[in-house]
Amino acid sequence: MIDAATLLQQDGMAQARAIAGGRIGGAELVAAQLAVIGRLDPEINAFVQVVGSPSPAPGSNAASPLAGACFAVKDNIDVLGWPTHAGLRARQAGAATRTASAAARLEAAGMVFIGKLNMHAVALGATNHNADFGDCHNPRRAGYTPGGSSGGSGAAVAAGLCAIALGTDTMGSVRIPAAYCGVVGFKPGFDQIPVDGVVPLSRLLDHVGILARSVADVTAAYLAMTTDAVDTASGGGDQDKPQTMAFAVPAQRETLAMSDEVRQAYEAAIERIRHQGHSLHEIDLSPYDFTRVRRAGLLLCEAELLDTLAEPLAQRPQALPEDLRAMLNFAAGKSAVDVARALATAVSAGQWLQHRLRGFDGLLLPTAGQTAFPMSEPAPHDQADFTAMANMAGAPAISLPLPVGHEDLPIGLQLIGRRGFDAALLRAAARIEAVLGAV
Amino acid sequence: MIDAATLLQQDGMAQARAIAGGRIGGAELVAAQLAVIGRLDPEINAFVQVVGSPSPAPGSNAASPLAGACFAVKDNIDVLGWPTHAGLRARQAGAATRTASAAARLEAAGMVFIGKLNMHAVALGATNHNADFGDCHNPRRAGYTPGGSSGGSGAAVAAGLCAIALGTDTMGSVRIPAAYCGVVGFKPGFDQIPVDGVVPLSRLLDHVGILARSVADVTAAYLAMTTDAVDTASGGGDQDKPQTMAFAVPAQRETLAMSDEVRQAYEAAIERIRHQGHSLHEIDLSPYDFTRVRRAGLLLCEAELLDTLAEPLAQRPQALPEDLRAMLNFAAGKSAVDVARALATAVSAGQWLQHRLRGFDGLLLPTAGQTAFPMSEPAPHDQADFTAMANMAGAPAISLPLPVGHEDLPIGLQLIGRRGFDAALLRAAARIEAVLGAV
Predict the structure, then answer these.
(1) Could you say which of A238, A337, A420 has the minimum Cβ distance to residue B420?
(2) CATH label of the domain that carries residue A192
(3) B residues 308-337 near A, CB within 8 Å?
(4) Residue A81 domain-assigned?
(5) Do A341 and B237 touch (CB under 8 A)?
(6) A223 lies in a domain?
(7) Is residue A120 a part of any domain in this protein?
């Protein structure tokens, strides 16, 4: 037999292999997982609710590569019988009447649903301060933010509280907590994981994503949940590509806003990738206006929230967090043409990126320009600047943890691909992960 | 040698073969094309401007399958040195400083640019009434609309005034004139033909499309202009599919609004396709609210026009057509949340369609519920109801002319595919074209 505590620090596929090989019982693993949650989560507060007596879904596929490992979902994703708070009690959510396709497909792959995860209110914000459910904390350093809005998802995976966490990503909300917590975070191409049963923020920009401890786990979970990926469906036209890959990196990297520690880790990573024989090509990002695109994305979220939160905003405005009310008030002062212009900006930015990345295996960027910061500090305005571009394009993007010192805060390396090429991006990410060293 | 007048009624690939085979000189074909325009266009008014002395672009690829044939572009597409009026003199367009990529790529494929085509003002409307450039008429019946907004494109191809016409399609503006004029009209997947150098209407919904006299021509032009198609790039994962195809058709077809003649031709066409051994599967379209989606699409166009037409609207409102002013005034009375809600509706409708068509070679629908109508009659409100769904999904869609009597007005059969599968849709369309009989 194997030590359960050690196993729960490994990735989900290792756990599934241990179960399949008879080195641990499925029920034993789940019980151990619940025990770890019981021990660690009071400090971290990644979960808003944990299952009582979990059991594999009927008809589960025990042969699938994640069978028996545990997953949890961000609390804006429906699970039958559970309320979907989306981080905000003022929404007064009742019990969901069905399970979102994304979660149902993980159960069908034999994974064990284990609970629902803390998040920034209505998925708009990246600190995971949460007055209704309590702040979520970064398991890598006490008192620090896990990022967000899928903060509970990042924290749970980093602390070994589940193997796979589902999150949502509208401007970076899967990748930012992955970077801050030191795990892998993947936002597939638009609608490749179906968004049914997910509380909308901006339907144009919303994506369901996956947080896990390895690219292999992310890939297995993705393949369990998607039915649509063109390059997967066609067998992947580029599997016969030469061994070296071609990555885009920004020219004038010194003009991009990032902290010294992020810059150093990022430059070291691309040097390491180059040293492996892959080619790096500088592309000019100056036509891409980070500030303008961020503001456009935010306005699209805020204006749509004015619609979806109309009822609590009218009936219980004081029950909404102050920062959320401020954003809704800002949008209420905007006009139809302001929103149309924001939409045009977002769509054009996505087109620009899609064309610019043609011929490359991806664009290498930091995931965020900063590491996690103390919960007591304000969030930087440009937190999602490097991530939002992939949402505008509906393109796949992944955050990989960079090697940092044991005491250092995690840093994420982001690889952004082209829409329609999810599987190719995951293959490239697996090779970069190997270059950077296992997590 | 070959009779030029006969050749100019054939498709562009036949013309290119005649040139390549020495049966007609390239200059002779162009001269004959200009002569036909000079003879027929005064009645039709498809062109807003014709070249003086056309010549193949330098560096053109004489080996490409359309080399030597003539193309023209809708007047919302930039050509170096020509004004881009977009159907509205109040925009006060100066000479374009570059040629749109779409047109430049056709020139690079050896096609000969021959002029710019009439359109409904700012591409919003489907009659091609045009006070600034004169109405465009349907070459199939005097006094009837060619449809729109790419009315000049449909009329020019139908009358043999060019082999290939570029159009734009935001809710159906390539496919509707193709259907009304009896030619093939293809709207590729989103951004597969680049939109640079195209006057925007709704950047979310805008597509560049192709009108031609055969699916082979459309395919050759598409391949000359796209660089991105996933299923083309990967060699087409479904080329090994079985000989029979599986098409979706709406259940409850009797509830869809269409004229008796359209219904009869449509039902006969799907019966003919079934008779060839292909399978038809009824899908429930009732969750798709045609009226709501149409209104959402219109509001997205109108609100964005409030921005892009701000200058002429403020300075020269009387120079705008009355119907356009009414639409802009309508949008000016809408709020930020109205536009956000319209965006949510459009995006959700597209997702619904994309998921619903999974597993099918396409959805067979009429292109429009009615045939061309007299220019003196008002346009039906639901003209674009069957076409707009493909714009919401960013999905490829094609209109094929159905067999009708020599004196009858043309009717279009529409095949809508899934985003990411342009090449597969074109292959399916070629097989349907063969079933229906050559145009």
Answers:
(1) A420
(2) 3.90.1300.10
(3) 310, 331-332, 334-337
(4) yes
(5) no
(6) yes
(7) yes
Nearest neighbour of A203 by CB, restricted to B228, B230, B344: B344
Containing structural domain, residue A181: 4-233
Q: Quick check: B191 contacting A, CB < 8 Å?
A: yes
Whole-complex ipTM: 0.95
**Per the domain annotation, does A333 fall within a domain?**
no
| Residue A416 CB coordination number (10 Å) | 24
Of B310, B347, B420, the CB nearest to A230: B420
Distance CA B157, CA B164 (A): 7
Are A304 and B233 inside 8 Å of each other by CB?
A: no
A-chain CB neighbours of B234 within 8 Å are 230-231, 234-238
pLDDT in tens, chain A (439 residues): 689 999 999 999 999 999 999 999 999 999 999 999 999 999 999 999 999 877 655 545 667 999 999 999 999 999 999 999 999 999 999 999 999 999 999 999 999 999 999 999 999 999 999 999 999 999 999 999 999 999 999 999 999 999 999 999 999 999 999 999 999 999 999 999 999 999 999 999 999 999 999 999 999 999 999 976 656 544 444 555 558 999 999 999 999 999 999 999 999 999 999 999 999 999 999 999 999 999 999 999 999 999 999 999 999 999 999 999 999 999 999 999 999 999 999 999 999 999 999 999 999 999 999 999 999 999 999 999 999 999 999 999 999 999 999 899 999 999 999 999 999 999 999 999 999 974 4
Give me the torsion for CA of A126, A129, A134, A136, rounded to 10°: 50
d(CA B32, CA A107): 67
Q: Model confidence over A210-263: pLDDT tens digits?
A: 999 999 999 999 999 997 665 654 444 455 555 899 999 999 999 999 999 999
* Cβ within 8 Å, pair B191-A354: yes
Contacts of B396 in chain A (CB under 8 A): none
Helices (H), A204-286: 215-225, 230-233, 260-275
- pLDDT tens figures, B286-318: 999 999 999 999 999 999 999 999 999 999 999
pTM of the model: 0.96
Domain total of chain A: 1
Distance from CA of B20 to the nearest CA of A (A): 33
Measured between CB atoms, which of A191, A230, A344 is closest to B230?
A230
**Type of residue numbered B80:** L
| Chain B positions in Cβ-Cβ contact with residue A420 (cut-off 8 Å) | 228, 230, 420
Average pLDDT over residues B209-237: 82
